[in-house]
Design a protein that fits this description.
This protein is an alpha/beta fold and 303 residues long. Helices cover 33% and strands 17% of the residues. The chain is globular. It starts with a strand and ends in a 5-residue tail after the last helix.
Length: 303
């Protein structure tokens, strides 16, 4: 039995039965479970090799579900939701009693998002579930933007008798959602993403322990070494003295850079590149999110 499917009804049945479904979103593919089923959510951590205690994002069908999964969210949360949902914005809000501890790592907050991908919106509307879903890859490695990436990463870990990889085509954005904590005043930008700080307002930089996905220093990491430079000339000079090196420079089109970044990291590994020299985009708008992912990919790996 194949894991890959385009059948939303089959994916819905898998969620109802406590299985896992890799879902396509406009950002990246996620590994999803019924968020109200602790046993199913625990399998996400097992399959990914993700440490228990790292909070998950709950994907919901529409803004009307906010009060089901949040407990008295702040007015700014509703304002941002009305402006950005469906879309690549995750809001940290006080959790409702419906949210199990395993989803939040025992925290009193939860991350909520309404994705815009039509396949996953169909799945959410059909099931009426909130679905907890981090990226559908092994923990700390490069996020998947196609169903083929998910199959390559998790195919040996998923169970084709109860799990499904729902193929909705390539992700159109390619970077994980922007995360904003609306439980503090002023709200804090916890993770840079497709919606820039300028777009969501002047928010304070996050500090302190990880409160959401993607806040670890090393993340999104390929097997090859990643080195960062500010200009193409610097990249070419470094490549000339670095055996097995390749240059990545898509700074001329940041939408393309974001959409293809994780694919380029994976391709470098697949083709045996030893060192990927990436040219950093300007640190504004979408460039901030791209820089964030590249800096985490280049950070020293945890030992």
């Amino acid at each position: 039995m194949s894991l890959l499917s385009t059948d939303v009804s089959l994916a819905a049945e898998a969620l109802y039965a406590g299985g896992l479904v890799a879902i396509p979103t406009e950002t990246v593919y996620g590994l999803a479970a019924d968020a109200s089923n602790p046993a199913a959510v625990e399998r996400i951590f097992e399959i990914k090799g993700r440490p228990i205690g790292h909070p998950l994002i709950v994907h919901i069908a529409n803004i009307g579900d906010l009060d089901t999964w949040a407990d008295k969210p702040a007015p700014i949360a509703r304002t941002l939701a009305e402006l950005a949902w469906p879309g690549p914005l995750t809001l940290i809000v006080p959790r409702s009693p419906l949210v199990p501890d395993v989803v939040t790592g025992g925290r009193d907050t939860v991350g909520l998002r309404v994705p815009s991908h039509p396949v996953t919106r169909d799945l959410l509307l059909r099931t009426g579930l909130g679905i907890a879903a981090p990226s559908a890859n092994r923990f700390g490695l490069v996020s998947p933007t196609t169903a083929a990436h998910v199959l390559a990463d998790l195919g040996d870990y998923l169970d084709p008798r109860r799990d499904v990889i729902l193929d909705g085509g390539p992700s159109t954005i390619g970077l994980e959602s922007t995360i904003v904590d609306t439980t503090v005043e002023p709200p804090q930008l916890l993770r840079a993403g497709p919606l820039s700080e300028e777009q969501i307002g002047a928010l304070a930089a996050a500090s302190g322990p990880s409160r959401s996905s993607g806040m670890l220093e090393s993340h999104y990491a390929p097997r090859c070494e990643v080195r960062l430079v500010d200009h193409l000339d610097d990249a070419l000079a470094l490549r000339s003295g670095t055996p097995g090196a390749r240059v990545l420079d898509l700074t001329g089109d940041l939408d393309t850079y974001a959409r293809l970044l994780f694919t380029e990291l994976r391709t470098a590994d697949d083709e045996g590149v030893d060192v990927l020299i990436a040219v950093l985009p300007p640190s504004e708008g979408l460039g901030s999110a791209i820089r964030d992912r590249l800096e985490k990919a280049a950070a020293p790996r945890p030992r």
